[in-house]
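Appendix B, example 12.
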Amino acid sequence: MTSVHNRVRARRRRALAAVAAALVGGAAMTVVGAAAPASAESGELGYTCKIDALDYSYKVSVDTDAPTEIAAGATTKPKVTAQITMPTVVADWIRFRGAQTVTGTASASYVVGGVARDVELRVLETSTGWGGDTGKPLTVTATGNLGDVSGAVAGGTVTIVADTISSLELDLAGSIGPLPIPLGSHTAKRCTIDGGQAEARTIDVIEIGEGSTSPTNPDPTPVDLDYDCVVPVLGAKTFGATFHVKAPGQVAPGTTFDPALDIALKVPRNLVDTMQQFYGTQAMGGRIVADLKVGAESRQTTVQIPTSPVPGAGDMSLAGTGQIGSITAGSHGEEIVVSAGSEAVTMNLYKSADGSGTPDAFELTCSLSSGQDATLATIKVVDGTSPTDPTDPTDPTDPTDPTDPTDPTDPGKPTSTSTTASTVHKRNGMVVLRGVVAADAGGSDRVAGKVTFALRKAGKTRVLFSTTRTLPAGGTVVVRLPERRVTKLLKPGRYTLQVQYRGSAEFAASRKTVALRIKR
């Protein structure tokens, strides 16, 4: 009987392989034909991957959360996200094996600043569409960290380029009710980029500026991390969590501050559906006890999660705010690093949408998924407060200062200046930011120093893009934002550009703000 089954399986494999070869041949022709017009805008790349002895055509889109600019000598740690689309024949083979979800890992290579580096990506849990999506491709999301990226020389750039994927290993799982059933694995190896895609391989270009790239940033930006959580009965699941440390980006030496911490835990939709089906869950709440590191000190922060109804579609977000505890800054030049650790999560499941009644309590133990940078915030300790903050109402460089800065009877007063700001849209979508600084007395062209550009959403205080440049002879500074960066950085809408001349011993500071509109 066993040999009969083996012969049946062998015939089935040969038949599927023949169909796969025919389909892949057609798909490969399509990929080659489409490769020529590929551009960096789409970010989609054609790869050829080997499964056993056969070649299959995959599509991969890659992006990072790298900043558009960093200061010379500064370091950033970008997260990379890859959308990997398997062809229909491979997707259906996975579904044929009864897999309802897949997770796994991918080993990819990227060229950062001309140097190749290997990155381990984690494939997030993805539904295969088993039972309903037969005949469709399957796309999985893989995330990881590129590691430290820095630039030494102002005016240069660091380019991030996609390269090979050495392996994509997926763990397949089915289920009986809420219980997961392992169904083995699926592996694609030696995925190489198809030809004719040189431009599309460029993921990001980071400019190296002078000085701080975000002198007015009010607090660190939110950080997304993945956690492996053990769910009672249901087994291991991957949760996404967003952390936001509510602290200033820089503090004066000796300052004591008490930052808040926002945490939003994302419960995957397939888990939400299971809880609704088997536990009648209509609302969720609970708490998160998060382990943190503040410098070398270990701390715990408890975040209470208010009860809220389960949404009709999409993931469920369990969000709340806690306190990290008081932090005292050290001496000038030090950095206070806040990092994430493991989490203990209590999920309260309610059978009524208003959260009434006695909940079913699920206790989850969550650890950070591998291959991630757990840094949540880096707070710099600098002398003074924030002298470059253009919103500081006590700023002595405010051009509306009623004291005449050019008073000839006071030889100690610097010569006043005027700053103008403008923006220009070019045909290719590039946005040019221009600042001109001139001395009010005698039209002097001897004005020297630094000029800061800051872009904000209209009506908001948070800086979306900032750079500091040295004022050249003639007093005109130009910053060019290519189309791809503008698309990634700014959504259509109204913005403000503020150009601020910081001043010098001879010349008073000045600034100008103009409106900017990004069109579709």
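Residues 1-42, 212-217, 385-410 have pLDDT under 50 and may be disordered. The chain is about 10% helix and 50% strand.
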